[in-house]
């Protein structure tokens, strides 16, 4: 479902003397349907960079990033927008929403943008918010004022509202208590059972061991590592 | 490229406009698809507003074509263009005074647009105006008040109601949240997002506010000196900017 081939990436800092910083070379990754792969490696090794390249907000210099039948390295913005609406979900660590929009609406939005009816989309949003123990009195409020843990759970609810065939999870259990962590792990297991291909970053080792089928150390994708091997 | 079974609503080909020796905008080309919000960012004088005026038929470009549903709006006659501007297009100005008639009631401002496309039944017009005031969160009791009695945020919402009452397909917006308090901006952004989704509007949004662009636009074009120097998915342009000027623009924003 997700196939990365010979991917490379560098940043050119035009306003800092044109410095070119190579951050990735020769990355390969394959994630099948129903499989969850954990990206590992020290902080700064490139886990988030790889995740952002799959999401499409970081450009690739060379190589291929196929999600379903679309190669993001070649795709037009319009195709990537459609992919994000229908195929590829993302639970990021940060909640970015229009201020003032009620939590229920924030969670229902992915379904509304797919053309679901308001009642149906809100019913799904209610189920998820209840499952993730967000108190009902908060549903009508904007999540921008919520605590970090609450915002994260809103993000998770939103990311699981539509049954995306492919999912990116960035530290989905990072600031959760035991009860909510369990709910999130169950959601991930359920997504795998229905055939979702998942790429995740988990510092929570027990969570990683439970839901992930494989680990891929991204340190091997750094240009320095390639030079060392050659 | 994968065929997504649609044609662009607007096709812009090599559009240029000069003011004597000075470049307004130069060699701008892009497609806009149904339901898509395209943000145009860049600092003052970068050519954003010139481009918007040329696209909306308010200014004649020196070169290039603008095809709306396949019809060249540059080559068509002035009356034809005026019909399009009344029926299919809408233009939201930064200053509500430029888009409203300040001496006419709120209801009249909305109703007038409907009458311009042929509505004649007073009751139906008043009903549509009341409905639209509600959609932009203006109390029905204010329908007979003049816009000058409204706050800046309310005036802007009224301008949006006046523009959208005829269900246009393409909306041009020039700094629609500029000049408003931040709290009022958020309310307007929320409103605009909902309307774009529910009505399937295509929007060309000129703004210098990157936060507004991030929340509203699907795609971004960055302009400098009249040229489009970068073009892509909104979060890609903002998170991984390629051009030196875009990198400077993004890194100059204060984080809150």
UniProtKB/TrEMBL annotation, chain A:
Keyword Nucleotide-binding: yes
ABC transporter domain boundaries: 2-229
Annotated GO MF terms: ATP binding; ATP hydrolysis activity
Domain of life of the source: Bacteria
Keyword ATP-binding assigned: yes
InterPro entries assigned: AAA+_ATPase (IPR003593), ABC_transporter-like_ATP-bd (IPR003439), ABC_transporter-like_CS (IPR017871), CP_lyase_PhnL (IPR012701), P-loop_NTPase (IPR027417)
Keywords: ATP-binding, Nucleotide-binding
Family of the protein in this entry: Belongs to the ABC transporter superfamily.
Name by which UniProt lists this protein: Phosphonates transport ATP-binding protein PhnL
Species of origin: Thioclava atlantica
